[in-house]
Amino acid sequence: MPQLTSSTGVLAHLTYEQRFSHLIVAVFLAGVLQLIFGLLELSRFFSLIPRTAHMGFLNGLAIMMFLSQKTTFQVCDASARQLDMRFGECEKQGRLEWMSLHDPKFWTTAFIVAMTAFVMHFFPRVPRVGRLLPPTLVVAVLAVAIEFGLNRPLLGYNVRTIGETSPLAGSLPSLRLPQFHHVQDWPAVFWCATSLAAVGIFESIMTIQAVVDLTKERRLTRSVCRRECVAQGVGNVVCGVFGAMGGCSMIGQSTGNVLNGARHRLSAVVCGLATFAVVVFASPVMERVPVACLTGILLVIIAHTFHWPSLRLVWHLRITDAITLVLVTSLAAAINLAVAVIAGVIWQSLVNGWTSGQHLRVASTTLETIEVEMRPALLTQTVTARVYRLHGVLLFSSVVAFREFFDIETDPPVVVLDLADTRLADFSAAAALKEIALRFADADKTLVLRHLDPQAMDLLLGHDIGWIATGPHVVMKRGPPQNEAREEATVVATPRSTRSAFHAM
Questions:
Q1: What are the residue boundaries of the STAS domain, all occurrences included (predicted)?
Q2: Which of 254, 329, 353, 385 is the most buried (most CB within 10 A)?
Q3: CA–CA dist 414, 443 (Å, integer)
Q4: What is the pTM of this model?
């Protein structure tokens, strides 16, 4: 996904205000794409995501959240400190450096992080009070009290706060329509919008699944996914209209709400309204919260997001499933969540296609005496035919093995292919049947297909060329005759619902 606002991204030649304008357009378009995705109910395709990809998604997201906390232990470099730059400006310009282990600020920051994580984990277990007060509120008050009541007055090792990172604008939002006419790089904007929409939808669906796994109160349904996509699309369109940052269902916040006792969407509504009220009317108070406190809260959420059983499970999975888990985890942490999940689905689809093709086999090859109607004289004659009974799925990955089942040179003039226990999966199956039929016809022999299911009949008649229905059968005629004795070579297919009947030339 292109970094539209980065000073080293694809729009580096533009000013920051122009780059930000491009981002707002991308957010608006992402909302439109998500809205369309929800209205068309395309979320039903999320059933293609394997469980290993879901676990890898959670692990990759947890790793991303963990790595993003590194700025808590970073400071502006020496030249930026001389200019008295805020941390947010230093981060935007890439002028950061790590704290020294000999710096007391490092240890006071680490103490607040550890204290916050400890209280977040154990406070909900306190009888009565633990269920009454949310631990996030408790640790925020405690961290502010320690920072401004003990650390700064007595020790002087200031821990960076939210206000010292970047000031909060405590004002109501104003209408700021996307400036489409100022866009100078539409491909970058569309690619960013598509990536934002995909990541948002993936994370939202995965968040719902994670909440379902935590609460065990309901199951993930198509209507829930559709409603989530539509609501998210509307929200991002509104964000684009007001010049705000887009968003999606946050697995960290949702996990935190569930851990605090939330069970329904009312908690998210209250959280949103409370956040709006705090930012607009109490931003000076929020600016005093140490960033280390937020890091401690996120560490607990990260610990609940990461699928810890997967560390042990990966050694028991099949190698292909283990690769899916590791692949999605790695790509989610290194690139983005959408690319990771799509790569996992593609890999698993290739694996399933290959393994399904390896199960095709010939159960038996026997000789049977059957009655054959000879054309054009329409005389009935008893002949001996070889019967191949096929088991499994005939698809693109099993065509090579399918070709090797037949011995055309030694087979009798009539050969029967029994497909009662076989499923034709794709057009490659129909093409393989046609190829074998024509090879038999070239040898002046007839191939008879019997016991085809309705799906196979539809595949041959409706989605292939050259098959013709003759009564209850399907025949395929092959080009001009090679000699006068044989006027045409016919391949007969008998449905499972009809009595077996065979025609030979």
A1: 387-460
A2: 329
A3: 11
A4: 0.75
